[in-house]
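Teaching assistant's notes for section 4

Start the section by putting this record on the projector. Ask students to predict, before seeing the second block, whether GreA/GreB family elongation factor will look compact or extended. Collect guesses on the board.
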Amino acid sequence: MPSEPAPISDAARHALEQELADLRTERRTVAATLQDSDSAVGDRADEADELQRADDLQRLDARISEITTRLRGADTAGPPPTDRVGVGSTVTVRFADGAEETFQVGETAEELDPSLVTADSPLGRALLGHRPGDTVNYSAPGGRSTAVVVSLGRSTGAEA
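Reveal the predicted structure now:
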């Protein structure tokens, strides 16, 4: 995650809040299965299961912390920018071949969505911080490529 607080779209916020609720529910379920180690008498398989559940709790706690920190940072950063490309922006670009496409710049891609460019993809990284009229350079599968930021709009909430 970036060191500076980054804005987040409403759709991404909702997805993270839902994931957080699901993780907390899963954590309660896993925690309830842990035995009191002083009263537990069992074989090595029981001990292995107990260790696995403890590992699961650590994994869940780490992700809960990560999401909570991300949501707090998004609150600090405010809404996506409207004067330059940022996470949550809708941007129309013109590629070197003249084709124009409109994308959402999202934080993560939950599923294959051709209208979504993640902020950590080569094109997404190149677009961040740019304004309409700016030319950006990025690495494409066929080599270096350029695109021009044609227009910029607010997030429509279509990305996760």
